[in-house]
Design goal:
By secondary structure, this protein is mainly α. It has 6 helices and no strands.
């Protein structure tokens, strides 16, 4: 997810996107049993919370800061901002394990803001890869279902959120493997399609 810049200085770090996406995949895996209602005990919530903090939050924060150091504004902004959302997931799960429910109105307002953010980020992702575009579309759907559930009934949209969580983790894994393994293998063991669309040519 690097932004090409004319006459740019060499990158300080190797491409950090796989680190962030692997952390995303692990965080999604930790949330999946909860999303499907299989593991809802306080112990399960606390277990998922620490994975959300260390992998969802930690890996993406590190990857985002490395992207900024590489002068990648889009990747750095997306990964770093998303990392804080995972820290909030850690706090929310820990609070629920202790019997404390986050305020509904505040969570709804923030989810609506995230929905707007990720709609625009999805448009930007289309300039890089169809797979990255699909990953961001999945994130948009998760927030859309969460907002719809908050305005109606969360149970109506619990299954769509759970399925999107699984899909998000799988897409994140595929992109990570493509970036990590394909250059080593010298061939596309994990096909990585090009952009959805291309920028307008400057005159």
């Amino acid at each position: 997810m690097s932004t090409p810049v004319a006459n740019a200085a060499p990158a300080i770090f190797a491409e950090p996107t796989p680190l962030g996406l692997l952390g995303l995949a692990v965080g999604c895996a930790a949330l999946t049993p909860i999303a499907f209602g299989v593991a809802l005990s306080p112990e399960a919530l606390r277990t998922a919370a620490i994975f959300c903090l260390l992998f969802g939050g930690g890996c993406q924060a590190l990857a985002g800061l490395m992207s900024f150091a590489n002068r990648n504004l889009l990747g750095g902004t997306l990964l770093t901002a998303f990392s804080f959302a995972w820290v909030v997931n850690w706090w929310a799960l820990s609070s629920l394990a202790d019997g404390l429910v986050p305020d509904h109105a505040i969570v709804l307002a923030v989810d609506c803001t995230f929905l707007a953010i990720f709609v625009v980020m999805t448009l930007a992702a289309g300039y890089f890869s169809k797979l990255l575009f699909a990953l961001l579309v999945d994130v948009v759907l998760i927030y859309l279902f969460k907002v719809a559930g908050a305005l109606t009934s969360p149970q109506l949209f619990a299954l769509p959120v759970a399925l999107c969580t699984v899909a998000l983790g799988l897409i994140a894994l595929w992109i990570s493997f493509a970036i990590l393994v394909n250059p080593v293998a010298g061939r596309p063991l994990f096909p990585f399609p090009g952009p959805m669309y291309t920028p307008r040519q400057q005159p």
